[in-house]
Amino acid sequence: MTKIFSKERLTHTKFLLHIIIAAIGLISVPLHILFSPEPSVSITKFTIHSNIIVTIIFTVSTFVLLLKKKESRMLDLYKNAALIYMMVVLSTYHLILSSGGEYSGIRIITNFTLHYLIPMFVLLNWIIFEEKKWYSYKSIVFWLAFPILYGAISLLRGMYDGFYPYFFLNPNGHIPDGVGSYANVALVIVGFTFVYCMLGFLLILMNRVIFRFKNAKYLQNTKKVM
């Protein structure tokens, strides 16, 4: 009875956290864009796109939990992708971009929620609530699809109209406006690709280690019962 109650309480808490993540995303993303001095620039940011993806994923997952259905393996893959994207958003903003501009009014709050709060909630969700599974290393290619597409579209647009969403994608000018050449942009892209691959590798490795540990523990308990 205690185990059943604990499992039910865990599911209810997971459901609540999913609602919170989805709700914060649904409120923060449009407010961050609408109150931007340049909404057309704000909407091009990877932070906005990745948070939209997270909001959609956790909204869908909320409805799946509400209907008491089992989450599909594809939804699990998307959640892992969301975790990787959010870790990149948090680390890139904190280490590279946080000193590049100041926010005022409501954007002080939305800047915090999009760059810090949602990423930490997504990480917390994975640590506590998500079932750890045996993923193939080929999943990394799937998780890379969105960042590669985002980078390619950003570069193509920049070649067309001269606008780049981030200085490190701009081959023109020098820091803090650009990185000086396409060779330097290529190095930046290689660096980000490496980071994504390493995060994906670590995520798969942690999933596998925890999965193996739980299976070994389950088999050991089964033998004791027998």
Q: Would you give an account of this structure?
A:
It contains 7 helices and no strands. Mean pLDDT is 90; it is low at 1-5. Helix 1 (2-34) runs antiparallel to helix 3 (46-66). With 226 residues, it is mainly α.
How would you briefly describe this protein structure?
The protein has helices at 2-34, 39-42, 46-66, 73-97, 106-128, 139-161, 182-225.
Number of strands: 0
Q: What's the tally of helices?
A: 7
Given helix and strand content, the structural type is mainly alpha
Q: How much helicity do the residues have?
A: over 70%
Low-confidence stretches: 1-5
Strand content: under 5%
- Mean residue pLDDT: 90
Largest sheet: none
Oligomer: single chain
Computed Rg = 20 Å
Distance between the termini: 21 Å
Shape descriptor reads: globular
Order of helices and strands: HHHHHHH
Q: What's the topology here?
A:
Layout: H1 2-34, H2 39-42, H3 46-66, H4 73-97, H5 106-128, H6 139-161, H7 182-225
Helix pairs in contact: 1-3, 1-5, 3-4, 4-5, 4-6, 4-7, 6-7
Features:
globular, membrane, mainly alpha, Pr6Pr family membrane protein, 226 residues, transmembrane helix, disordered N terminus, transmembrane
